[in-house]
Amino acid sequence: MLMSSLGLIFGLLLLLVSGAALVSGSSGIAARFGVSPAVVGLTIVAFGTSAPELVVNITGAIKNQSALAFGNVVGSNIANVGLVLGFAALCRPVEIEGRFVRRELPLLLLATAVIVVMSIDPVLRGSAATLDRSDGAVMLLLFCIFLYVSILDVFGPRPGGALLTEIETNPVVQATPPPVNHWILVTVGVAGLFWGGQLTIENGVTLALELGISSVIIGLFVVAVGTSLPELVTSIVAALRGESDLALGNVVGSNIFNSLFVLPLSAIVRPVDIPAGGLIDLGASLLLAAVLIPIFWIGRAKLERATGAAMLLFYLAYAVFRSAY
């Protein structure tokens, strides 16, 4: 138990340092190229901090642990909004200025709704709830659309093509690439988050088993929260530094990446069975995604501390409910 505890502490420290490096490097690159931090948060940072989920899911699919793969993705998505975004708002209110993240929020809601529909479809036909290879292929196509739109935001020859617009208005500055140290920080940050996430997961699961925690809680919360720690650290650091777009973009991009790439890729490797209570977990994920729409579309586009506290309390209450379910 001592070695597991020390490994868990080291993993958490590595996540903290790597998250700070990733935010610093990606923000520097975004500023140098004139690209919105929201775009960076939705792509480079989000995909980098989702690396632990990808590794855990592919490993679980290969080892025929589909329940772990499903619980990891859905549990991480719930943790990203309820725990990560809620905690980040407690540290500092999250306010978005750009249109990029605001536009991706409906896509997050759509991606979650698609998983729900695909999960209940077999139930309506009287068979076991499963995400098969055809479901995975459809979700991967949706992910390709998300990538295409994101690339157009940066390089597209139209209003909103942030990189080309900045090059046209300031060609002298754009002739020189960002300092190498920014790229080094991003690379080291992603690698550190990946390693730290692995250490945290392995030692966290071992410690949970030693303490006698049930496998359901391990899958939904120990592994899921462990793989969400990079997002938690990165979003908190970004929020404290006033990079609200980066903090929210990280959460939204990570959840889209989890839903439309990590989970369907696992389903293509091996069909993912929906475990008992899985539809309840999907409902909670859908609810949290839906809550973000009125906050950032209809309201003041600002997540206040009180709302963040409510989201955090919801996550903790849900953890207690699922542990007793």
Structural class: mainly alpha
- Rounded to an integer, what's the Rg over CA atoms? 19 Å
State the strand order across the main sheet: 1-4
Largest sheet: 2 strands, antiparallel
Query: Poorly predicted ranges (pLDDT <50, ≥5 residues)?
Result: 158-176
**Total separate domains:** 1
Number of helices: 13
| Helicity range | over 70%
**Residue fraction in strands:** under 5%
Could you give the count of β-strands?
A: 4
Tell me the span between the first and last alpha carbons.
28 Å
Order of helices and strands: HHHHEHEHHHHHHEHEH
Label the CATH architecture: Up-down Bundle
Q: Indicate the mean pLDDT.
A: 76
Task: Briefly summarize what is shown.
82% of the residues lie in helices and 2% in strands. It has 13 helices and four strands. It has helices spanning 2-33, 37-49, 51-62, 66-91, 100-124, 133-155, 162-169, 171-174, 180-210, 215-240, 244-269, 278-298, 305-324, and strands at 94-95, 130-131, 272-273, 302-303.
